[in-house]
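Hi Y.,

Following your request, here is the sequence exactly as I used it, all 399 residues.
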Amino acid sequence: MPQHPDAPPLAGITVVSVEQAVAAPYATRQLADLGARVIKVERPGEGDFARRYDTTVHGESSYFVWLNRSKESLTLDLKAPDGRRVLERLLARADVFVQNLAPGAAERMDLGARALSERHPSLVPCTISGYGTSGPWAARKAYDLLVQCQTGLVSLTGGPGEPARVGISVADIAAGMYAYSGILTALFTRATTGVARAVEVSLFEALAEWMGQPAYYTRFGGTQPPRIGTRHPTIAPYGAFTCADGKDVLFSVQNEREWAALCERFLHAPELVGDPRFATGSDRVAHRDALDAIVAERCAAATSAEVMKALDDAAVANAGANDIEEFLAHPVLDARGRWQDVPIPGGITVPALIPPADLTGVTPRMDPVPAVGEHTDRVLAELGYTRAEIEALRADGVL
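Below is the corresponding structure, written out as C-alpha cells. Let me know if you'd prefer a different format.
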C-alpha cells in the first residue's frame, strides 16, 4: 500500500542493528533521520561501548549523542540462547539488519548474511567490517586510525616534518555513508524486484575509494603527492596565509582568470600575470615558494577581514581558518536554521545539526538519544512477551 505523501520517506521500515562505535551507528542514524524505526541492540548494563568514549555532553558521550538520536535501545545478551531467540523474533519482522561485530562473530552466532537470507528472504542484511569478510585480512580487527594508515591517508596529512591522522573518524564515516547508501539501494531493489540483496562494506575499502585521486597521481606520476599542510600538491597559490591580526585565511586560484584577478586586484602586481615563473598552473606549482612569499607578504600587511574583503572583491574564493568555536557560531548555520534541540538521557536537550540532505516537504526526524535499554520492555511486549516472561529474562541477565 502506498504510504501517505506526508509520511517520512522510510516510514514503515524497521531496522535492527547490533552495532557499536561509529560506522554502523552512523549508517542507521541516517536511516532513522528519514523515518525508519531503528532498534539498537546493546549489551545489558554497559551498552554500546561508544557511550563511554567521553562524558562531555552533560555526562553523555559526544560520539554517542551525535550518532544515536531517534533510535530505540533494546538490551540483549546475544550469547544467551534466550537472547538469540528474542533477536530472531525481531528479525522476522524487520526489513534491515545491520551489524559491525568483531570478525567472525556474526557467523558464529548464525547471523551471517547468507544464513540470514535463507531464514528471512525479505531481510536486507548489512555487514560492516574492517577489511572485508574474505581475503587475507578478514580476521584482522580494525579501527579508524589503523585504516587511515593502511590506505596511505596519514602519509598525505600533516606538514613536511610529521604525518598526522585526520582529526575526525574519517574511515568510520566513509563506511557508514556507503552502508547507508547501500541499504537504500537494496531497499529500492527489493521494492522494484522483490529481491532482498545483502550489503557489505569495509572501512578499508570505503576509505580506499576516497583515496582514488592520490592513487592515480602516484601510480602514473611516479611519486606520491607531498605532505604540505594546507597547501595543494598540484595548485598554487593554495593554502592558509597568516594575516596581520594572527588569523589564517585560506584561498586558492583555480584558473587563469582568477590568477589574473589575484595579481591585479589583490596583490596589486599586474606584472606577475606575465611573469614566466607563474605563466601556467604547473609553473606556479614549480615556483611555489617564491609565489607563496609574495602572497604571504601581502596578507601580513592587512587584517584577516581586510584580506577576505579584497579577495571577495577579486572574486577569489576564500575562507577564514575557523576553530570549532567559530564553526559552532557560523552565520550560515544560524541563518539557515540548521540547529535543532534533541533530548538526551536525563531530560536535557542539546543542539544537533539537521541532516544535510534537504528533501522538499520532508521534515527530518530528530527524536531523543536513548538511555541504555530504555525501550526493552516495550519492544519485547510488541513481540508477544508477557510481563512475567520479561522479568524472568531480566532476572536471568538476558536483558
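The first helix runs from residue 23 to 33.

Thanks again,
Q.
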